[in-house]
Amino acid sequence: MKLFDVYPLYDVTPVSANGIVVTDDKGQDYLDFYGGHAVISIGHSHPHYLNRLKDQLDQIGFYSNSIKNPLQEELAEKLGQLSGCPDYNLFMCNSGAEANENALKMASFETGKSRVIAFTNSFHGRTSAAVAATDNPKINAPINQQQKVTFLSFEDTEAFKKEIEKGDVCAVILEAIQGVGGLDEPSTQFYQTIAQLCKEHHTILIADEVQSGFGRSGKFFAFQHHGIQPDIISIAKGMGNGFPVAGVLIHESIKASYGMLGTTFGGNHLACAATLAVLEVLENEDLLENAVVLGKYFAEKAKAIPQVKRVKGHGLMLGLEFDFEVADLRKRLIFNQHMFTGGAKDKFVLRFLPALNVTQEHLDIFFKALKAELV
Predict the structure, then answer these.
(1) Average pLDDT of the chain?
(2) Which residues make beta-bridge pairs with 22?
(3) Are 334 and 350 in contact (CB under 8 A)?
(4) Which of 1, 44, 319, 351 reaches 20 to 30 Å from 182, CA-CA?
(5) pLDDT tens-digit readout, 303-340
(6) What kind of fold does domain 14-46+304-374 have according to CATH?
């Protein structure tokens, strides 16, 4: 049997990793400034993370959600405390797409409606309603296109008012900082207008924090830069530092009932241990503040490079915009400078998504290498 060939692959085979250093099968070290799509939040092989998982595996790794799992309650309490969202309830699942599927399903349950408003350049997942709300026709199969989704542009307040006033919208879903799309973000005024209109029209506001959550933007959630309160928050990626775990935070005003949501693997003992370890490291090492400080440092360094047209994003969810497509630059950074970075739907944007405990020295090395490749 062969692998289903859906991934274009770089000729690099990692076999070990520590901190932001990834080592391949030839012994070559690479600096990881991409974290596997923003998944590695506290660094590869963080000792506290490893110990948490190993200790849990020695006890019990998995059982179904038909029994009590105190780790889930511990996690919900810790997450509510650190995120500043104690008035939400946690449902755990396995991936960002699954989190968004459940968020959209809850919105439809709660409102009795079915149309969704999403935004240009959005990415919410590759399954069912999540991919229907993703602005990429190439990955949207006919079966997904049965979903009723309207795509609008950020800042087009009049178009938004016109659509939500039709009365059939169950959910508005948006990323406060678009990940795959290329680090675009709504203004605070636009986001607050959306939030207010959602309240007025009995529409659920979903904050997709799959990539931007868990401190990546310098606040625990990126929507917190805008002073709004969504009804539902979807989380994944950096939540487990590489362990497949995700979740949905559902405001306590939305009531649960047995059977409404369900998952086989979500919230298992290992997933809880991984997420608790991430939360503990974020808190103990003050990594949100590190993201703020180094985000500003990154922006200042970038502004000194003439080829950089714009710095996008917040914290350590960053992009460099050039006036040329960056695919070849990414390859040169990998094979000449031994550094991983990311691309985007916007082919002119180089994405920078390192672990949140990256250092100023690491950023200096990156910019020295970048300048060498831009000569």
Answers:
(1) 97
(2) 17, 30
(3) no
(4) 44
(5) 999 999 999 999 999 999 999 999 999 999 999 999 99
(6) Aspartate Aminotransferase, domain 1 (3.90.1150)
pLDDT at 252 exceeding the cut of 90? yes
Say what angle helices 47-59 and 269-284 make with each other, to 10 degrees: 150
Q: Say if residue 11 is exposed, middle or buried (CB neighbours under 10 Å; 0-12, 13-18, 19+).
A: exposed
- Report the b/e string of 45-71 with b at 16+ CB within 10 A: ebeebeebbeebeeeeeeeeeeeebeb
CA–CA separation, 160 and 136 (whole Å) = 20
Q: Read off φ and ψ for residue 169, nearest 5 degrees.
A: -90, 120
Burial bucket for residue 43 (CB in 10 Å: 0-12, 13-18, 19+): buried
pLDDT number for residue 375:
87
State the Cα–Cα distance between residues 224 and 240, nearest whole angstrom: 21
What pLDDT is stored for residue 152 in this prediction?
Answer: 98
Its CATH class, for the domain covering 47-284, is alpha beta
CB contact at 8 A, 217 and 176: yes
Any long-range contacts for 7-12 (C-beta under 8 Å, 24+ apart)?
Answer: 10/331, 10/334, 12/334
CB atoms within 10 A of CB 224: 19
CB neighbour class for 130 (10 Å; exposed up to 12, middle 13-18, buried from 19)? buried
Question: Hey, how many other C-beta atoms are within 10 angstroms of the C-beta on 187?
Answer: 11
pLDDT band at 374 (very low <50, low <70, confident <90, very high): very high
Instruction: Give the H or E element holding residue 208.
Output: strand 204-208
Domain residue spans in the chain? 14-46+304-374, 47-284
Q: Would you state the structure tokens that stand for residue 147, as one six-digit string?
A: 């979903």
In one-letter notation, the amino acid at residue 98 is E
